[in-house]
Amino acid sequence: MMNYQQEMKQNTNLLASQGATWNSLNPEYITRMRLQNRFATGLDIARYTAGIMRRDIAAYDRDPTDYTQSLGCWHGFIGQQKMISIKKHFGSTKGRYLYLSGWMIAALRSEFGPLPDQSMHEKTAVPALIEELYTFLRQADARELNHLFKELDAARKRGDQLAEQAALRKIDNFETHVVPIIADIDAGFGNEEATYLLARKMIEAGACCIQIENQVSDAKQCGHQDGKVTVPHEDFLAKINAVRYAFLELGVDDGVIVARTDSLGAGLTQKIPVSQTPGDLADQYNAFIDGDVINSLDELKSGDMALRRGDDFIKPTRLANGLVRFKPDSGVDRVVLDCITSLQHGADLLWIETEKPHLEQIASMVARIREVEPTAKLVYNNSPSFNWTLNFRQQVFDAWQQEGRDLSSYQRDRLMDVGYDQSELAQEADRRIQNFQRDAATQAGVFHHLITLPTYHTAALSTDDLAQGYFGEQGMLAYVQKVQRQEIRRGLACVKHQDMAGSNIGDDHKEYFAGDNALKASGKDNTMNQFG
Description:
Layout: H1 4-17, H2 27-35, H3 42-62, E1 68-72, H4 76-90, E2 96-100, H5 102-108, H6 125-158, H7 161-172, E3 181-184, H8 192-205, E4 209-213, E5 229-230, H9 233-249, E6 256-261, E7 268-269, H10 281-286, E8 291-294, E9 307-309, E10 312-316, E11 324-325, H11 331-343, E12 349-352, H12 359-370, E13 378-381, H13 388-403, H14 424-443, E14 446-451, H15 454-470, H16 476-490, H17 497-500, H18 503-514
Parallel strand pairs: 1-2, 1-14, 2-3, 3-4, 4-6, 5-7, 6-12, 13-14
Antiparallel strand pairs: 7-11, 8-10, 9-10
Helix pairs in contact: 1-2, 4-6, 6-7, 6-8, 8-9, 11-12, 13-14, 15-16
């Protein structure tokens, strides 16, 4: 934390040490510019935010109601407005992060145009978005501090010393909009060296936390699509090591690694690892491979392979493309092994990609993991790929059915119908959805809750709403009534979009640089004055 008056004193001494050549410079202007640019580099941000995450993790270990949250953001402006809103509504950014979604980079940030979430987009887009997000968050700092400086100047002009001291306290206790980003590196975009190189770029851009998944890099699928293929543990652990080395090389010793397992929905592997001793990781991985027991090599056809499992030999079940199938219903066991192995080899947090938001399912897996690793914690994807309404209404239906309640007025497969919205069942489902994050934090070890691509959907929904009205009968009223009037009444900072884009900061800089000769944009004819 910088102290305004101490910084002023240092800058006054600095200018005095230069003699007459710097007489045109003002120490207060230097002070303000330094305070508005607290973080000189992305590494400064990564080190600062890593400390925040480590403290939050420790706080969660003490009290699991102290969980953290984030929303996925696909543009710097979206992340900026999110953090401004959080500060406005809650007074602090504590426990609130940003999530950088590989899905949204693929869908919205690739030069190829919209792409599926299959690691086909440029990997340079990942660190570029991290840098963009932090650029906008730092600009939010500069803007808010600029308003506090104006408040200080106004108090001084009135000769109000109490107001001046109050403004100085606000400046000295200013809370930055810069918060941790959990950044998605997908499956590492190649081999472990490729993973290291990309992780280093992400960290240099400001990432303190990198999430990596155990899918095959060149066959990567979205976590909620079919056809997922996982890699043997030693391949995944090599990439965890690569990320950790990148953190350590760059001096971000507190960097956080989230190890994601897609094994619950992945039924295939690309290769069979070589076991060195019975019971090692490769042997445990191979124990899940599906196959038929053979009694003679004569049972093998050309190109077939045999795998020894204990005293038996099996012919692994292979697809036409050479991929090898896992045993049916082995996903949960593979998830547990993946998670324990990752924690024992350098990961800090876990991510279990599930097919539905089901508290008991998550809790049961975490309980098994904690039998071996008692402090295991999750980052959980509150995914828009889930039909939350239908899932929770069906969960309530099933629970009530077990209790023997009369459900004759409900049809389980049609519970999404609007006709059920005011029903007792729907209200109970909504209560469970409302409490899901809190309950999962305390009952299922979820340290961090995120929604991967919410702002993708909010952008589509708000645009649809405006387009329907503006191009229809409402015309301009659609914008005024649903957007501008709401911005004004809700106190959204971006209603003064010139100020949000940096116009007032630019005017101040012109005055710093050119004095009375500065040509400013904020005079009486600036239409932003209409917003007070």
